[in-house]
Each structure stands twice: as structure tokens, then as C-alpha cells.
Amino acid sequence: MTRLILATRNAGKITELHAILADAGLTHELVGADAYPEIPDTKETGVTFAENALLKAHALARATGLPAVADDSGLCVDVLNGAPGIFSARWAGTHGDDRANLDLLLAQIADIDTPHRGAHFACAAALALPDGTERVVEGTMPGTLRFAPVGTNGFGYDPILQPEGHEVTCAELTPAEKNEISHRGKAFRALVPVVRELLG
Fold it and tell me: The pTM is what?
């Protein structure tokens, strides 16, 4: 059995990818970055989601000698030319301050009418092998931005994105409902044939 490392300390992400691999009949042992606490987190210095995902995957693969998966994701707003994009987690200046990021974004587009509030979540997922082999896949979840946050599930910008074809925000969906349509769920599912091809 091949051990596969996912570059995250988020247990929910590990559970999600594990379920997707298991559903596809892939039985690789999946662990998170916590299994290797001596390896520092990689700085995300890329200018695209794909570059950041590859940076993290290659760093883990080199440090452990094992295949590694990493993802990078964010919110891309049409009227902001795709911003906040790779800066989604630190849009208001402090990394991970969800409320400040959300409030700033809503203030920036406060005067924009609903027909022009299109946006999508984007995710790039990368698989890197110790020999330098790499693959990147992507997934998106298009929708419309609400004028105020609604819902208590999820995190980040979930309370303001209403996915296409739904009447509720991402933060009003159950985790299972969100995984079915999410950008990360789509990217992780697109990784399945890549894992099968490169790892058997």
C-alpha cells in the first residue's frame, strides 16, 4: 500500500479526499502533514492556485520521499477581475481573519447589483512524486455573491456565495451537500485518475 501525504493540517480535508479515493476503489494510506511535524509549512509564493499547490506538493514529496497532494483555493469575483483569488485568506491583511476578509469584500462591491455579482470558488489540486513528476487538476463552483452573510456552516466566504442552481449559500448547505458541488470536491475527484495512473 502506497502512503500518500495531503499537505494540510485540516482533518476535514483529509476525510474528504480519503472518502473520494475509497469510493473509486483506491486503498492508498492517506495522512496529513501532521504525520511529519518536523517539516515546516511551505510559503505560498506562487501567483496562481496551481503554482501554490505545486509548491506545497513538491516540498512535501522532496522532504518525505513519498507522493504528496496539495491544494490551493480561493474566491474569484468577476467585477474585481478575479480578486481576491490567491489572496482570499489574507484579503483584509491578516491571514485567516474570515470575518474581516468577508466584510472588506462586501464593502468593495456594496454598490454592485445582483446581475453583476458573479463569482466562483476555484481550487487547484496537485500530485507530486519524489522524482519530480507532477500533475495539476482544477475545479470550480460558480455562483452569485449575496449582500450579507447567511448560514453558519463552512468557513471563509461560504456565507456570501450562493452556488449556481441553489437558493441558499454555501454556509447553509450540509458538508455532504457542499462536497458534492464544491470546487475542492471537483478537483479531488479529478485527481482520482491521476492517482490511479501514477500510483496504481
Answer: 0.94
